[in-house]
Amino acid sequence: MNLSHKVLRQFILIAIILTIHVIHVHSQTIIPVETADNAVVLQAGVNGDVSCVYLGKKLRSVTEYGQITGVNRQADDYTGLYNSAYTSSGSRNLLEPAITVTHADGNNSLDLKYVSHEVKKISDDVSLLTILLKDPVYDFEVTLCYRSYFRENVIEQWSRIIHHEKGAVTLQKFASANINLQGNSYWLRQYHGDWAREMQPEEIQLSHGIKTLDSKLGTRANLFMPSVFMVSLDRPATEDEGGVLYGALEWSGNFRTDLEVDPQNDLRIISGVNNYASPYSLRSGELFETPAFLYTYSAHGKGFASRNLQSWARNHKLLDGKGTRLTLLNNWESTYFDFNESRLKELLQDTKRLGVDLFLLDDGWFGNRYPRNDDHAGLGDWQENRKKLPNGIAAIAREAQANQVKFGIWIEPEMVNPKSELYARHPDWVVKQPQRPEYYFRNQLVLDLSNSQVQDFVFQVVDSLFIKDPALAYIKWDCNAVIYNAYSVKLKNNQSQFYVDYVLGLYKVLQRIRAKYPDVPMMLCSGGGGRVDYGALQYFTEYWPSDNTDPLERIFIQWEYSYFYPAIASSNHVTDWGRQPLKFRVDVAMMGKLGFDIVVSKLNEQDLKFCQNALKTYNEIKPVIWQGDQYRLANPTEGSVASMLYVNADKDKAVMFNYLVNSRYGEGSRRPVKLKGLEPGANYRLKEINFYPGTNPLVDGRVYSGDFLMSLGFNPDVNTNRTSVVIQLELVR
Ligand code: DGJ
Questions:
Q1: CA dist 385 to 339, 346, 370, Å?
Q2: How far is the CA of 595 from the centre of ligand 1 (A)?
Q3: Where are the domains positioned within the chain?
Q4: Among 104, 278, 333, 338, which residue's CB has the most CB atoms within a 10 Å radius?
Q5: Taking the alpha carbons of 235, 239, 244, 247 in that order, is the dihedral positive or negative?
Q6: First vs last Cα of the chain: how many Å apart?
Q7: What are 412-436's pLDDT values in tens digits?
Q8: What is the Å distance from ligand 1's center to 439 Cα?
Q9: What are the C-alpha distances in Å from 338 to residues 117, 333, 377, 525?
Q10: Residue 527 CA to ligand 1 centre (angstroms)
């Protein structure tokens, strides 16, 4: 073969490759979902299969998304379904499915093919992509929904399932999302916990096969494990480096997330309501809408992902995320169940003296036949205890007004003690197996919220509080028990719908409450942080991270929550837990929504003065903490110092919190801590704030450039004599 032949042959070969490639590209429908920095790229193939071909940093040119599938050289995908956008089972699939059904005729196969897609612009920030998929054999369809938040780089993904078969179809598995990541290795950061030990992190490299994160607890679903997690690509991401995906299910019940490293070394993530004991029967024409799975990807480490998620929460999800919050005095740890009207009157005076906005009356105010004097009795009987409150809540509310403070109250309306009038009156409202012994969690049982009568009851518990006190300014909604012996009298032969219908029932009640009382702040509490998720947080203004209020522990717990939730949502109370000085306790509680649960009358003069001043300081800096960008500067798990910074949007105000987390001899901030998020060219005046009366602040009015503070850093001089130091930064004009 001479040279010209060779060139010609090569030319023909290239032409063939190009043609095939062009045909290949043209025959695919590429559907990119883009945000400010990222893209999820879906692709409908010639055969109608829809795949998730890319999730990561977005490309400059949309047209290049069509080239993505051509660049990988992985092993064969025998099925063409490994990276399916919603893996259906029973046809060609070999891996973990997103959806499994039993059709009306008993057949278990499903194959979902692309029909059409549509993008709707909801606002300048928000778009909704829907992709309609249909089974060619059965009259069964799924619409994949992707709501993207452009500025915040967040996507919420869920599915709508409907069929028109001749009888009911059973949904055996019905995930919200099925996404696909490509990396050389995958590093999962997950959380486990128990009472007073919430958000304990663990990080592992994922190996082939499936790692499942799940909950089967029903209520208080996060007690052992929350649904939040993160996956880093290639190596564990740091605060500012590395690709990392954060994920969470917006669901306040059983969840299940499967992370599967597949035969092609891709990571398949399938997340949704846990199908454990939950096959769901769907009538012809009935719509089943899954909750949303939310995710955000960051190519610049965890800090960027957190700030995106926190802004998203404040702008779009958390109730009143851009609003204000009330500081408060809670009586749980100062009185427990032991109080009466005159003690509460004293506490209301203390509330005023301390200088907080509101008094929060906790557990123990109700029950007559079975008074709530400990946690064995009374839950369900939401009438004021006549001995403790002979003049009712109205009298306490009046007293609050007289003291010019607001009043809030604790409830746990989903639960019942067997020792209660409610239990005797409505045994059929209680979740328990008809033929098995009862088994209790904190001496109580759960009410059956899948029953609409129970939903009405729970709504009325809240409504009647507002009738008694129209000025009621705050509710703490607790949920202390998990579900044992799951069984609903109401659901009769449809028991497997119970776990799902419970949560849907809970949301119905919360929607009714919010329709009537849209603004009242409510704290989401579950014996600590047993129910912290964005499904619930759209109805709540804040959450209770943990009953563990030891400030040293809280530094770690709040740190981990901060990856996923904004500071404005974190209720932090100063209590007597732990051995740290009062200043340390107050400083830690300031990194969120500040409250107190101490005996104010027992504070000595200096301590009281300090708290009063701290509240004034807090009122000045809280806009920066609540709405500012958060930067985790020094990680308490990596050294002796923890340091957290909040910077406002204009970058002219910031607050830096610093703590000693290791009390061994000579420990302290040996090196300066590098700040972030400042204006490099601007000058900032630094001053120590919130110091204890009689102590001298070490930093007063020194000026540094943003460049200096971010390149060399600032040393807060944290040491065994100064275990917590708060620094305020103000731009010098
Ligand atoms: C559990 C909560 O986490 C506590 O703060 C307190 O409200 C108790 N329940 C009351 O029983």
A1: 11, 18, 9
A2: 15
A3: 87-316, 639-731
A4: 278
A5: positive
A6: 78
A7: 999 999 999 999 999 999 999 999 9
A8: 21
A9: 61, 10, 14, 21
A10: 5
Which letter does DSSP use for residue 135 in this model?
Answer: -
Identify residue 197 by its one-letter amino acid code.
R
Q: Reply yes or no on domain 87-316 having CATH 3.40.50.1100.
A: no
Q: How far is CA 127 from the centre of its chain?
A: 22
In terms of Cβ atoms closer than 10 Å to its own Cβ (0-12, 13-18, 19+), residue 120 is exposed
The rounded distance, in Å, linking the Cα atoms of 142 and 131 is: 8
CA-CA-CA-CA torsion sign (213, 644, 302, 731): positive
pLDDT in tens, 406-415: 999 999 999 9
Backbone φ and ψ for 571, nearest 5 degrees, come out as: -80, 115
In the three-class reduction of DSSP (H, G, I as helix; E, B as strand; rest coil), residue 274 is classed as: coil
Integer Cα distance of 651 and 312 in angstroms:
19
Helix (H) / strand (E) containing 705:
strand 700-705
The pLDDT tens digits of the residues spanning 101-139 come to 999 999 999 999 999 999 999 999 999 999 999 999 999
pLDDT band, very low/low/confident/very high, at 499 (cuts 50, 70, 90): very high
| Contact present, 177 and 158 (Cβ < 8 Å) | yes
- Helical residues (DSSP H) of 296-339, grouped into ranges: 301-312, 332-335
Distance 363 CA to ligand 1 centre (A): 7
Contact status, residue 520 vs residue 474, Cβ threshold 8 Å:
yes
Backbone angles phi, psi at 358, to 5 degrees: -145, 150
**Closest residue to atom 3 of ligand 1, CA basis:** 527
Q: What 8-state DSSP symbol labels residue 356?
A: -
Ligand 1 proximity of 547 Cβ (cutoff 6 Å): yes
- Is 639-731 assigned to CATH 2.60.40.1180? yes
The amino acid at 390: P
**Average pLDDT of span 352-364:** 98
What are the Cα distances from residue 74, in Å, to 172, 182, 264, 645? 31, 11, 5, 43
Counted residue by residue, the chain has a size of: 733
In the reported structure, the alpha carbon of residue 479 is separated from the centroid of ligand 1 by a whole-number distance in angstroms of 9
**Predicted pLDDT at 28:** 85
Task: Tell me whether domains 87-316 and 639-731 share a fold.
Answer: no
607 lines ligand 1 (CB under 6 A): no
CB-based contact 403:349 (threshold 8 Å) = yes
Residue 382 is encoded by which pair of tokens? Answer: 């939401």
Residue type, 93: N
- Residue with the smallest CA separation from ligand 1 atom 2 is 527
Q: 594 phi and psi, to 5 degrees?
A: -80, 135
Mention every residue, 6+ apart, whose C-beta is less than 8 A from residue 11. none
Ligand 1, pocket-test mutation among 195, 198, 331, 332, most atoms within 8 A of CB: 332
What would the two tokens of residue 455 be? 């939903």
Q: Report the phi/psi class of residue 485: left, alpha or beta, with left for phi > 0 and alpha for psi in -120 to 50.
A: left
- Cα separation, 519 vs 324, in Å, equals 11
